[in-house]
Amino acid sequence: MYKLIEILGTDKPIIREIGNDDELFTLEELSYLNEKPSEYTVSAYLQLAGRKSGFYKPLYSKKGVN
Q1: Residue 49 DSSP label
Q2: How far is CA 25 from CA 1, 5, 28, 47, 52, in A?
Q3: Is the per-residue pLDDT at 18 higher than 90?
Q4: pTM for this predicted structure
Q5: Given a cut of 90, is residue 42 above it in pLDDT?
Q6: What residues contact 5, with CB distance under 8 A and at least 6 apart?
Q7: Which of 8, 21, 42, 44 is the most buried if burial means most Cβ atoms within 10 Å?
Q8: How many CA atoms lie within 13 Å of 8's alpha carbon, on the beta-carbon side?
Q9: Distance of CA 11 to the CA centre of its chain
Q10: Has residue 55 got a pLDDT over 60?
């Protein structure tokens, strides 16, 4: 998890929710799916709801897809 100050200036999008057709995964989802995190790259950040200090979770996509 990152604070807003840690991701300011990034060229990656910040999204509020993941759609069903998105090929974006959290690190926990990759672990559950038995995927190798080394085959994925950070493609976006997910804004966590209900957090006053502004926390964000990295979202991963398969390398070479985006």
Answers
A1: T
A2: 14, 22, 8, 14, 24
A3: no
A4: 0.82
A5: yes
A6: none
A7: 44
A8: 5
A9: 13
A10: yes
Structure tokens belonging to residue 2: 């990152």
Give burial (CB, 10 Å; 0-12/13-18/19+) of 42: middle
For the chain, the average pLDDT equals 87
* pLDDT value at 22 more than 70: yes
Kindly give the pairing relationship between strand 40-47 and strand 14-15: parallel
Where residue 9 falls (left for φ over 0; alpha for ψ -120 to 50; beta otherwise) is left
Residue 4's SS3 state is: helix
Q: Which residues have C-beta within 8 Å of that of residue 34, sequence separation ≥ 6?
A: none
SS (H, E, C) 5-34: HHHCCCCCCEECCCCCCCCCECHHHHHHCC
